[in-house]
Amino acid sequence: MTIPVTPPDAKFYPLLKKYSEGGISAMDAAYEIQQLKIPGFEDPSASEVIIWARMAGYGIPSPSKEEAEAEAAEIIKKLGKSDKK
Q1: Fewer Cβ neighbours under 10 Å: the N or C end of the chain?
Q2: Structure pTM?
Q3: Is the dihedral of CA 42, 6, 15, 61 positive or negative?
Q4: At what angle do helices 13-20 and 46-55 cross, to 10 degrees?
């Protein structure tokens, strides 16, 4: 079953842009949208923020190749430490 998502309100486009640029997490953006107290958007979820960012044409954060490789290396390093316990 597909549940339709209401289009984003232009009042929180700056938050969607900030999320899409990696400045805040989807969860933080949802919380900040909730604080705006816009009727119809009282309890947004992180998943709605992701959909709204795409609907607004901003897209979602995407790390550079170098950032992704560094993150993967850190995860592998942590996994290696947990195996030794």
Answers
A1: N
A2: 0.73
A3: positive
A4: 100
